[in-house]
Amino acid sequence: MKTGVVDVGGGMRGIYAAGVLDGCLDRGIKFDLGIGVSAGSANIASYTAGQKGRNYRFYTEYSFRRQYMSFANLLRGGSYINMDYVYGELSRADSEDPLDYPAMSANPMEFIVVAADALSGEAKYFDKHDMAQDNYDVFKASSSIPVVCRPYTVDGRPYYDGALGDPVPVAKAFELGCDRVVLILTKPESELRSPGRDEKLARLLKRKYPTAAERLRLRAENYNAGVARAREYAREGRALIVSPDDTCGVSTLKRDRDSLRRLYDKGCADAAKIEAFLAE
Q1: CA nearest 10: which of 158, 143, 150?
Q2: Closest CA to 105 of 130, 70, 80
Q3: pLDDT of residue 254
């Protein structure tokens, strides 16, 4: 029985999924495959490395630093979020809070990171072979929110946030051989994504990256369709959707420590649903 977990990300709302995955570590829950989109890739990296609490620190401590996200970053480097700071200065072996790459690499769990090719708009599925000690460019690519950030280049190709390519990659998990999949959403399952903001950003992106802009314009439609598909899998008993009952006021880029802590705690508690699902 091959079991997968999918973390769709969601900016600062990703702290909910960080809580779910930390709850899984507490309960000794293991997966055979993990797929991370955007911030979800960082969540699954720390989970795979067995580093409980590491993602929590990134959301509640480091994200408040100007080096992490600020308009100063946008003016200096063209990206509101400084990916090289997040996945470089904070994550390399000699850094303040290193990712335990040897542990992540040694974990037999397959690990897929989803990004979107900025030129073709197509989903790109990176794996552990695309990572190395202190080389976490695939996380940077997967987390580069269009317009808010410049695309991040990996092997000569520019990439944007994985949500443009495959926002809810549950079907991909089954394609990779999973028999059952846990899908972690970072907003209530019943909350549809609205296309309004994406359409505005797509107009700004269209001149330089027209195909990626079209994928951005369709992101809400594709997200909603992905969740609907996951519900079908859940009705068949092949999937479990884990999501917060509310987001505690946390949004993609909003930072409030009390709200973040409450959303994280919801995630930790909701990991019990996974334990029950896997015991069936």
Answers
A1: 143
A2: 130
A3: 82
